[in-house]
């Protein structure tokens, strides 16, 4: 499933293509939404913004399109009249004279009134978005120390969208590695300095993934790996997806475990 950085990059692409432009045609795959297509023709797209792993597309009519990619959804932004060659099922088409924003294969799509967005069942449960400017490390650190979250294992907490929205499986492994923390630890097991460092890394690692297109490894390691001709899969992440490969910090072999029925990668030495 795409995580916060990937959803924000998708929002950026869609916004660049259609924000401020008038919709000349709208198509919906779900039959329950078909009656609303004509309502949006002639509307202008005001913004496209992520909320955690969801996207909110606002129109000047007061409507908001809510979409969640889940595992298989994907947005394409293409030149008008040139849809991608794909076997996926078209779910939403927002067409302007010059650009089309097309959503394929997503299962969660709704058209909401703007004043109903915050009450949406998914949106209402979200914590602060990890990539929002209004979510600095001090806000995350405060949540780590709160009664609500302090006794949750870090392995579970970092996937809980009510803690901070936008984190996912690869980010969980990478954040815990760079923090030097085992996933079984809880915020209440950490000292203030460790919580502060963890909060900073939750923000900075996610931001690095956003700016680099999914790479979380530190730039100097990436540069060395590229210079040595290593393929991207070996240097994109420090631990995620690298089971049985040596840790670049200590040389110990990286392990894969299951936490919350999902794979998690760690270095038993660096995070022991």
Automatic annotation (TrEMBL):
GO MF annotation terms: class I DNA-(apurinic or apyrimidinic site) endonuclease activity; damaged DNA binding; oxidized pyrimidine nucleobase lesion DNA N-glycosylase activity; zinc ion binding
Entry keyword DNA-binding: yes
Superkingdom of origin: Bacteria
InterPro entries: FPG_cat, FPG_N, H2TH_FPG, Ribosomal_uS13-like_H2TH, Znf_DNA_glyclase/AP_lyase, Znf_FPG/IleRS
Top class in the EC scheme: lyase
SUPFAM superfamilies with a match to the protein in the record: Glucocorticoid receptor-like (DNA-binding domain), N-terminal domain of MutM-like DNA repair proteins, S13-like H2TH domain
EC number: 4.2.99.18
Co-factor requirement: Zn(2+)
Keywords: DNA damage, DNA repair, DNA-binding, Endonuclease, Glycosidase, Hydrolase, Lyase, Metal-binding, Multifunctional enzyme, Nuclease, Zinc, Zinc-finger
BP terms from Gene Ontology: base-excision repair
Domain FPG-type: 238-272
Signal peptide: none
Domain Formamidopyrimidine-DNA glycosylase catalytic: 2-99
Family the entry assigns: Belongs to the FPG family.
Designated name of the protein: DNA-(apurinic or apyrimidinic site) lyase
Species whose genome carries this gene: Rohdeia mirabilis
